[in-house]
Amino acid sequence: MGKDEVDEVEEDLEDEEDDSDFNGEDSEYEDVEEADEDKKEKKVQAKRGGRDKKRRVAADDDEEEEDVGSRRKKRSVFIDDIADVDDDDEEEEIDEDAEDLIDDRDVDLPDAAAAPSQANYRLLAGRDRDREEMKEDEIARYYEDRFKHYDEGGSQYDDQGVEAGTVSQQGLLPTINDPKLWMVKCRPGHEREACTQLLQKYYTLHAEGLPLMIKSAFTLDHLKGYLYVEAEKEAHVKDAIKGLRSMFYGKGVKLVPLAEMVDAITVNRKAKMTIARDNWVRVKGGLYKDDLAKVVEVDSSAQRVTIRLLPRLDLMAMANRDESERKKFPFGKQPSVRPPSKPFNVEEARQLALSVSRAPGPEGQSYLMLGSHRFINGYVERTVAIKFLMVLDGMPPLEEMSRFNAAGLDPEGQGNAGGGAGDLSSLMATLPADASQPKAKFNKGDKVVFLRGELQNLEAVVTDVREDGKIMVMPNIEGFTDSVDCDSDELRKLFLVGDRVRVMNGQHSGESGMLIHILSNDRCVVISDLSREEINVFLRDLTQHEESDTGVEILGPYQLHDLVQLDQTTAGVIIKIEKASAMVLSSESTLEKPDIRVCTLPDITRKVLGRNIITMDRNGNKVQINDLVTVVEGPSTVKGKSGTVEYVWRGALFIKGKQLSDASRGFLCVRAKACTVRGGTNTAADLARLAASGTPRSTPQSPAHAGGGARIGYAPQSPLARGLGGEVKPPPPRMVSSQPGSRDGGKGGHGRSPAGVLVNKVIRVVGGAYNGYRGRVKQESDTHVQVEFDAINKVSTVDKKMVRVEGAPAAANGPGGGFGRSNPGMPQPRSGFGGSASQQSGFGRHNSQDYGSSQLGSYGTRTPMHPSMTPMHHFGSGSSTPSHPSMTPMHAPYTPMHQANTPMDDNYMMLGGGGGRPGEGRSQDIGAGSYMPAPTPGQAYTPAAFTPAYTPSAYGGDAAPTPGILDQSGNTGAAYPGDIGHQANTPYIPGSTPRGGLLASDSGSGGLVGNTPGYRYTPAGMTPGTTAPTPGIVGASTPAFTPGGGMPQTPGADLMGGGQIGDAGIFEYNNWRDVLVSVLPTKELAVVCGPGGNRMSLMVHYVEQGDEDKWVARPGALESVEGAALQMVLPAKKDRVRVVLVGDGASSDSLGKDGLLISIDGADGIVKFEHTSELAIIDRKCLGKIVKVEERH
Amino acid sequence: MSPNSTYAHARFDVLGVLGSSTSHVWNGLTVYVKPHCHRTMSSLEHAADVPAHKDVNRDPGDYVALNKSLRACFVCRLVKSEAQFVESGCDNCKFLDLEGDRGRVADYTTPNFSGLISVMDPSSSWATKWLHLSKYVPGCYTLMVNEDVPDSLQDILEDRGIKIRTAH
Predict the structure, then answer these.
(1) Starting at the edge strand that comes first in sequence, how are the strands of the sheet with A1164-1169 ordered?
(2) pLDDT grade for A1061, boundaries at 50, 70 and 90
(3) Is B46 within 8 Å of A172 when comparing Cβ atoms?
(4) Start and end of every Spt4/RpoE2 zinc finger domain (chain B) (predicted)?
(5) What is the pLDDT of residues A579-632, one digit of tens each?
(6) Which end of chain A, N or C, is less surrounded by CB atoms within 10 Å?
(7) Residue A13: its pLDDT value, please?
(8) Is some CB atom of chain A closer than 8 A to the CB atom of B65?
(9) What was the pLDDT predicted at B118?
(10) What DSSP state is assigned to residue A104?
């Protein structure tokens, strides 16, 4: 035992004796008390007081029991004997001693008093002797017990570390057995007073023997006018607050729910003010509101802080104040206009004859005094209340800080009136290098370097950031497997030039970019991904950021590059998102002057979802999303530029292109009329010819026109058709989603975006929780609609699958994928005669990228044909599924037009160009010499009949199986369906609006032709011999059309390995790129390598199979081939594949996705998608085999 | 220390604020303070003083002045006025030796705290349990001290193996 220790023990003994003396009196007193008590019990006394007494007696007993425990503790002062035995324990002993010292002196005073000190000592000594005799393991157990005791809170001071604290705190959560909290109203500002008053009252009444029953009372400083009182019963609380001036007894007390008790007692951490010298603060109010200030001095007892600010002085006003004003406002008037903040300039003040005096300042400097203002180094210094300031979390923005610091660089406030941003390095020099500098925030995965310590200069990677601020890092040392924890100031972030980084802090927060230059002093230069500008940031504010992105990307529900609606007539693309606003390139832009607006969330009405809108370019070619267009008008800055169409909005195109990266961030808004689409089939010459022919060519954009057309088109239809219509199957549910939805047919015509086709429709829910409810669609997304129910006051989101447009026949979901297949013949006759009651215009609209007009689509939907349609179509119709076109019977009539490349068909493409178009189209058609039958309105209604006929011709035929087809299975297409259709239609034609009739006659034989389209096309479209798909035959021609998948192929289909490309329509060239196909007559193998000469064809490169699955291009074998002549090669196992057709298992969502065919199961293939690693079972015919072509050397 | 000094002291506190009379009209409530109530005081003999001015003539309602003089012990968070600390030290942390040492009071207590809790019955209260005050004497405490423990005190505490709960 060292001497010191001995001393300590002795001291302790003395203490103890003192205490004992002192407490000895105490115990005497207790005896007296007990004696008293006996007497007292005889006395009449308040029952409560008596009870309390008893309880206290019991408590005293308890205390005595505890005394034993604490006495045992006391022995610890002698433990040192043991320590001699075992040196290893020494450290613990000392700790223990410390604990005991506290115990001895503070808490256990009364306990010690219970026994005479001599006896106590003997007892202790005896125990010590006992302990000496203990075996080692006994000793171990002894310590274990002892420390267990501490863990249980035996010590007065909970010596729980931070980590232990959180865990044990959980165990302290209030239970129903704990006293409750009651909220009491008190006079605002007198909370603390009320709190102490309660304690005072408690003491006083306790002294009187009528103690209050409350347990505690507390107030949070930030909660004005309330006090919490803890008690078992409400009555106790009321007793306590009764008669106290600072509390409102009359207002009653309110119970705090159990779950809120912890919140009630938790001081808001933000309320905790940690303000220190050199902190950056902001002023909360007054003239300097929001100004940056630096703390010079903190007087925590007075709660006042001295700060330095850039002064905002109106020297002129100060100079001009006359005497009367000076009397009125001795301290000056708050200027009505806020003067700019700039460093104080003595010369300026002196010139205005303001007297500036000097006063001694800190550190040998002197203050300049101007009136009551005191200035130093150009700053104004003020002492304000802490509450007046807001402490900044991190560093202030660099610009602001540099402005602030620049002033200080200017000694004595001379010159530098502008306070301009000093250059960064000098700024850095002024930055405090001490710990007040905010620490870097480390993130998992950051590369770091040790700044000091044993591991100095070692590189490491952050593996974890613990809650207590410690950072776990894994040093880059061979064989080092454990993480090391260290403080954040021991580390510096390590970045290399070229790293992709994201800024975590400051005004560029959220932006990502590439580190291009590292300067000294923790600074660096980053090229922002978003703005392409160099930004200066601190290294410590950076974090590694692997993905390249465009920085901040989300504003509420909107994302960067979304097309959003701003008002009724304006939409725009979000080109940049900042913290609370977005820059939107609006559709009001002209080529000369892009209209870029800064919009906040409320400025944006909604997201525009339309993907399938089609418009026309200068030459009358249809333009849609993803088309490549070239600007042909406008100033030289944009003329000749080209880009990809990202969005179409009412005749305006939003183009994105690399060449366009200017202020509008790579976007350009241009009228469609000012562009030409690449690969457009129409030329200016065509246009001219058309113009010359005098055919009235309506502007496709005009919604009115379109709408009118639509009405005409529809009018005859509904009643009549319904009347005749027998049983019609409703369209499969999916159709709904893609429907123009126009019950009235007007919708598409009015140019509404297709995505909103269900909006405002009255629908009925046919499944799920809201089964049977009727409501109106408020919003629509790809998969869901938001419905406002009629019966219940609620807006809810419902899966589109469960939604049926009101008025459609109730036979809800049609056979899922399989109309065509399941009973090929059946639907037709019915539909042929029956007008379709179906409201759904499933086919057409949308998908008709080719045919375009949604009106047409709508017609289509009315036709009896529907039922016979496979749901796939609709489904696929979503966007650019190649298969689409073929699905809509309506289209079929037009198809030839396309092939013929008559300008006409383009007319149909226009969104909203629908209804009126057919007529015009027809006439033009004829004019153009197209053999295509002009689509009379009549036709429109009767697509059913035609469909089968066309199908083969156009794109491989639709699924709608007409009985006739069955008969004629061998033939391509069929006249008879046309016939039937014809018959079916005929009645309507007359019935249709005069206009329809007129149009029909207009086109001369149009009506006739229209009804019998089948004859003509079929041959036209199909390559003789190769026209494999006669859809009618088996009910479904090509996989593309028959979503049911696994459809039997048409005779002659044996040729086909995979899907028929021709069926798909070649719209989405990207989907086909690198797909291996066989070119039909010869079955030569080729790879698709680009868009073909027209919309129906693809450019292919003939290839040969080389070694090891390599494909070698045959030199010069580049050819544009009609889609109909292309046949996909069935992929084999382990081939790379792409979903190119919509079919069994392949939804439009998965269209264009690449994957690996990992297994083959009959007709299906199991595909693992590349990006998502999802597995999907997809009909192999929907999969294109992707090959890489190598040039022959 | 005289045998009765503890009580006398405690009683003085109570009476002092009240105005040291046998009865006192306390905001409308008549409180009778018996001159000799030693027995009943016994259970509170280790209670801390109510934060108050020592000046008995002072208006107890003059709270603003009191509030400015309030300080909290860094270690146990006990709140008293500065004068009270000087007079009786910290009732929980005797080892701080604050009694009579203005400098130590200034060093080891702080006016920079938020929230105030009056603890009447530390053993059965949930709030004290939650705040880890249940082992301390009844008295006024703060919910949170907003200042870091001074280094000199930190050393003392380390020597004694005491860790202070900074926040929960």
Answers:
(1) A1175-1179, A1164-1169, A1154-1161, A1136-1139, A1183-1185
(2) low
(3) no
(4) 70-146
(5) 667 888 888 888 777 788 888 888 888 888 777 778 888 888 888 888 888 888
(6) C
(7) 43
(8) no
(9) 92
(10) I
Domain chopping of chain A, boundaries: 3-171, 180-267, 280-430, 447-544, 554-693, 703-751+820-967+993-1021, 1056-1190
Interchain contact, A169 vs B130, CB within 8 Å: yes
pTM of the entire predicted model: 0.34
The region that residue A1116 occupies, defined by phi over 0 for left and psi between -120 and 50 for alpha, beta otherwise, is left
Distances (CA, A) of A1174 to A1133, A1152, A1155, A1158: 17, 14, 9, 12
Return the CATH fold of B48-160: Herpes Virus-1 (3.30.40)
* Domain A447-544 in CATH 2.30.30.30: yes
Share of chain A above pLDDT 90, in %: 1
Q: Both tokens of residue A125? A: 């000594």
Question: Who among A109, A207, A218 is closest to B127 (CB)?
Answer: A218
Higher pLDDT, A550 or B132: B132
Block residue for tokens 């006896």: A119
Domains of chain B, by residue range, sit at: 1-45, 48-160
Q: Which of A179-183, A624-628, A901-905 has the lowest mean pLDDT?
A: A901-905
Q: What is the rounded distance in angstroms from the CA atom of residue A899 to the CA atom of residue B168?
A: 76
Tell me the β-bridge partners of B73. B109
> Which of 66-105 (A) contact B at CB < 8 A?
94-95, 98-99, 101-102, 105
Helices (H) and strands (E) in chain B, counts: 7, 7
Cα A591 from Cα A134, distance rounded (Å): 97
Structure tokens at A281: 């603060």
- Residues of A with Cβ-Cβ distance to B138 under 8 angstroms: 199, 202
pLDDT, tens digit (0-9, with 9 covering 90-100), for A496-535: 888 888 787 766 777 778 888 887 767 788 887 766 778 8
Sequence-ordered strand ranges (E) for A284-385 = 292-299, 304-309, 356-360, 366-370, 373-376, 379-385
Is the separation of the CB atoms in A866 and A855 below 8 Å?
A: no
Q: Which CATH architecture has domain A180-267?
A: 2-Layer Sandwich (3.30)
